[in-house]
Amino acid sequence: MTDRVDSAALPAIGGWTHGSLRRIAAMMLRYWYLLRSSWPRLIDLVYWPTVQMVTWGFLQYYVATNAGFFARAGGTFIGAVLLWDILFRGQLGFSISFLEEMWSRNIGNLMMSPLRPHEFIAALMVMSVVRLSVGLIPVTLLAIAFFGFNLYGLGLALVAFFFNLMLTSWAIGIFVSGLLLRNGMGAENLAWSIMFLFMPLTCVYYPVTTLPGWLQPVAWALPPTYVFEGMRALLIDKVFRPDLMIDALELNAVLFAAALFGFLKLLKSARRHGSLMQSGE
Question: How far is CA 93 from CA 38, 68, 79, 222, in A?
């Protein structure tokens, strides 16, 4: 006669048995290992509260120290929202098209086909513009109807703003795609949230001078900062700043080249480790 007792034979206490508790604990351990092994998930836990606090904290400080801000800068917030949407939706459109290949587990097939990486990236860039246009054009028309703000009234300056913002969004989308290739769907949250990391630093709703002195060089190292500063100069001072657009273009060239280099390195690493055929968690 054995002293071992099957857990299924133990009496249930409040509907719970020793076996069910062990299964629950096993699932909790499984999710803990999944969380612990994925640094994007760990970062995501503190990411959103930090971004919200920093962004709106700087905005509150700026508004509080500029009593005549709303009188002098009518339309600045709406313009910032629309330009931010170009930056965010451009990157998201790129990343979603890439994620659709991940969701359908088609990445391995594409990488083994005659399709070259730069051709794949070019197709994703075009699709990001298509997705952005579908979402942005109705919003700009609503801005005219409800608030009387005409984004197209910015003229040629809008072309410079748009081109620089799209270059930044493509660069970030390319790098995130490389991380997805290497880390699988465990890095999916980055595709949805990484752009918000740049919101407080690119000074979407307030000038760079609002930031602490030690943080301002970081802001000036990001191409979108020059676009939003240029937008405020145009709407508030009625002056177009081509120097800001040139600086943004130079930084974008460096950022885009670095993103391409990172993507190719991550793709090579994914091929070496077999990640292309294991696009799950």
Answer: 24, 37, 21, 21
DSSP category for residue 155: T
Phi, psi angle pair for 16, to nearest 5°: -110, 140
Contact status, residue 91 vs residue 169, Cβ threshold 8 Å: yes
H-type helices in the chain, by residue range? 18-36, 39-64, 69-72, 76-103, 107-112, 117-147, 156-183, 188-193, 216-220, 223-236, 242-273
Query: What does the pLDDT look like over 198-238, one tens digit per residue?
Result: 888 999 888 999 899 999 999 999 999 999 999 999 988 88
Instruction: Classify residue 3: in a domain, yes or no.
Output: no
- Quick check: 193 and 41 in contact, CB under 8 A? no
> How many angstroms separate the CA atoms of 222 and 252, rounded?
8
Cβ atoms of residues 40 and 189 within 8 Å = yes
Residue 35 included in any domain: no
pTM: 0.77
Q: Is residue 178 part of a domain?
A: yes
Q: Which of 193, 247, 246, 257 is nearest to 222 (CA)?
A: 247
Provide the number of structural domains found in the chain: 1
Taking residue 270's Cβ as centre, other Cβ atoms within 10 Å add up to 24
Cβ-based burial of 234 (10 A; exposed 0-12, middle 13-18, buried ≥19): buried
Query: Is residue 96 domain-resident?
Result: yes
Which residues form the domain of 200?
44-277
Q: Which of 254, 113, 125 lies closest to 177 in space, CA to CA? A: 125
